[in-house]
Amino acid sequence: MAEAVFHPPRRKRRVFESYDSPFPVDVGGKDFRICQAEIINNNVIVRNPEDIERLYNKGYFGKGILSRSRPAYSISDPLLVTKWQGANINMPIIASKKYQCHVQWAKSILQQQGFDDCSVTKILENYTKPLELPFLEEDGAEQTGNSCNRMGPNTENTELSGQSSTDTGNVVALSPENQNEGYKKACLEGDPTFDPVAICGSKEQEQSDLEEIAEASCQKHGFHMRCGCKAKKSTEQRSCEMIKSKECAPEYVLVQEEEEGSLCPGDDSAHAQENLVKKEKLVCRRNPFRIFEYLQLSLEEAFFLVYALGCLSIYYGEEPLTILKLWEVFSEVKPNFKTTYMAYHYFRSKGWVPKVGLKYGTDLLLYRKGPPFYHASYSVIAELVDDNFEGSLRRPLSWKSLSGLNRTTVNASKELMLCYLIRPSDMTEKEMSTPECMRRIKVQELIVTRWVSSRERSEQDEL
Q: Model-level pTM?
């Protein structure tokens, strides 16, 4: 029988963050806090921004629903940010097409509120019109909009039209759902000084407005809109209060737009007229539809935070769920939850950072420290067996499927590991109905490698 060879983890070339001490944390420490999550459509979602940052930074738990891994979604286009990096701007930059998508989403929300097409058009035209706001150049001098700022790539003229250096962090989803007559009259008349979002009424009216647009948006866009439905008002009260101040002011963005057949003043040479066929400018506008990102936890991650670390409380509706209830609910949602969680708990306790291995056809991927620092070292398949390594396997592998799975894993510079969770023969189903059954479970790891005859023959010849 061949002996397993453990290869060192492969470190990533570009690391842009520092390593922070992971969970578990000191329960009696001043920094300890219990985070909050909720079950929505059989998924565990964390809404509070502070809880999101804490859970991900302290062990890389979960995944941002709009990001590749770390919940750091921004509507700013990275290519445009690089292109305009010398303009000393402090607002998100997006392309005109992407901005129009946000306008269309806001339009659909207004139509759901019962507004006619004329009213919707007036509201959006008023809300998304260009703004003349001051911006700061590289030297820090304050300038005004509509001035030729700098030359962009491809010898195209670039123009920066308006930026706010003060209103950069406040965001809101479009909420023109106020149904009073004065509101509609101002919208239809097209009052240029009327801002349907920045105006906030009394606290009671504001809260009802937020609930109305949230209820309408939840039906169409799921988690993409902030402040959930009325049915979950009490469970989300904490997170809504945290960002209430941000939801009362619009978000300002810079939209890159093009003007065909125009030249920057002063460039009247023949060579310039041949090359400069369009002028690019950044126009400051209000963002009519803001998408908020949440942290989605896998069932294994959520239960580990509740059961092993005790730093997470999971709600369903208005009721926090107990450990036994979560064990039961998760087992119903995911039939193989007990098996995968035992493997997750085992590898987390050994210092690995397990993540979902669905994209490689396995149960788990094991990272050293975390995904930002190292590539995954092992791709794990978990199986629950008895003392004789027999049982109803979740994933019965033939030689052909095992060979294909191993080749897929090796091509991704990983190793395939079979994790057998050995259950005593005298363990009953009643014992398996609680997480305390893990006390009697033993673990056997098996690394699968491809046997190459020519390589083995050459090694024998050398001996």
A: 0.66
Cβ-in-10-Å burial (0-12, 13-18, 19+) of 412 comes to: middle
Question: Contact 374/414 with Cβ under 8 angstroms?
Answer: no
- Burial of 244: CB neighbours in 10 Å, binned 0-12, 13-18, 19+: middle
**Secondary structure (3-state) at 338:** helix
The rounded distance, in Å, linking the Cα atoms of 198 and 205 is: 14
DSSP string, 28-90: TSTT---EEEEEETTEEEE--HHHHHHHHHTT--SEETTSSSSS---SS-HHHHHHTGGG---
Question: Whose CA is closest to 286, among 149, 177, 179, 175?
Answer: 175
Distance (Å, rounded) from C-alpha 222 to C-alpha 216?
A: 10
Q: Residue 305 gets which letter from DSSP?
A: I
Distance, in Å, from the CA atom of 159 to the CA atom of 75, rounded to the nearest integer, reads 21
Which residues are annotated as catalytic?
A: 367, 375, 414
pLDDT string in tens for the chain (463-residue length) = 455 566 788 888 888 777 776 666 665 667 778 999 999 999 999 999 889 988 998 889 999 998 888 888 777 777 788 788 776 677 888 888 889 989 999 999 999 999 999 999 999 999 998 987 644 444 444 444 443 343 334 334 344 444 333 333 333 344 333 334 344 333 333 343 333 333 333 344 444 444 444 444 433 333 333 333 333 444 445 445 544 445 445 688 889 888 765 555 555 555 555 555 567 888 889 998 888 889 999 999 999 999 999 999 999 988 999 999 999 999 999 999 999 999 999 999 998 999 999 999 999 999 998 898 999 999 999 999 998 888 777 788 888 888 899 999 989 989 999 999 999 989 998 999 999 999 999 999 999 887 777 766 666 666 6
